[in-house]
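Hello Y.,

Per our agreement to keep a running log of every chain we model this quarter, I'm adding this entry. I've kept the format consistent with earlier entries: sequence first, then predicted structure.
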Amino acid sequence: MVPDHSDLVADTVDGDRRSQLLHRAYRSLGRQDQEVIALCVLEDMTTAEVSELLGIPSGTVKSRLSRAKRRLSQLMNPQTGFLPPTAPLTSEEETP
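Predicted structure for the entry above:
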């Protein structure tokens, strides 16, 4: 019996599509929101570390992070975001 890999392929395609949409949503954020997401989430820095690095109060880091996460969540939601799940990607967006 030949294994059916269609579910794995579909999951991979869905994951790639979601990753591309997340990349697009991230790029739509303002520079300050991108910075705080990159440092706190991607680089796993604490708010205190980011505060010191950027020279801004810890509370500002927290509020920017909260706002950026909320905005990303809205953008990734097909019902509330501006990113339709079937929107074609340009060749530039297809390359991470």
